[in-house]
């Protein structure tokens, strides 16, 4: 079983920046964030480069945990060829699937969709999730679950 690192192209469209100052209703949220920052001034921010977790295996889909806390679980899923993961589910966790690179066939419950780069989907608690690579190129998916799976 060979593990290899492959460069995956990630294309970014233009991002429109907007100021929160002019948006109605966001000032209270900013104040809450400020108070939270004061309470957690001692805490260190944990960062990781997602691309460091992008690796492909010739035999199976590859998964790497990005972050795991008491309330949140994030994982990078790398698939190529006809590889996939699932079905998997958790009765208590909501999920978010974000395609970072490539194209995947996703099934959530009984609904199927082909998802391309930067598309996302919500996974309700208790619903089965299955992901499969759907292109000749490798695909990378970010999976977020809250709370973490039991």
Could you describe the 3D structure shown?
With 150 residues, this protein is mainly β. The chain has a domain at 45-146: Sandwich (Jelly Rolls), CATH 2.60.120.10. The protein has 1 helix and 11 strands; from the N terminus they run βαββββββββββ. A 5-stranded antiparallel sheet has the order 3-4-11-6-9, with no helix packed on it. A 4-stranded antiparallel sheet has the order 5-10-7-8, with no helix packed on it. It is globular, with a radius of gyration of 18 Å. Mean pLDDT is 83; it is low at 10-27.
List the defining traits of the structure above.
single chain; 150 residues; mainly beta; Jelly Rolls; 5-stranded antiparallel sheet; 4-stranded antiparallel sheet; 1 helix; 11 strands; 9% helix; 40% strand
Q: What topology emerges from the helices and strands here?
A:
Layout: E1 3-4, H1 27-39, E2 56-57, E3 62-68, E4 73-79, E5 84-88, E6 94-101, E7 103-108, E8 111-116, E9 120-123, E10 129-133, E11 139-146
Antiparallel strand pairs: 1-2, 3-4, 4-11, 5-10, 6-9, 6-11, 7-8, 7-10
CATH superfamily of the domain at 45-146: Jelly Rolls
Query: Over the alpha carbons, how many angstroms does the gyration radius reach?
Result: 18 Å
- What would CATH call the architecture of the domain at 45-146? Sandwich
CATH topology of the domain at 45-146: Jelly Rolls
Topology as a string of helices (H) and strands (E)? EHEEEEEEEEEE
Q: Percentage of helical residues?
A: under 10%
Biggest sheet descriptor = 5 strands, antiparallel
Backbone structural class: mainly beta
What percent of residues are in strands? 35-45%
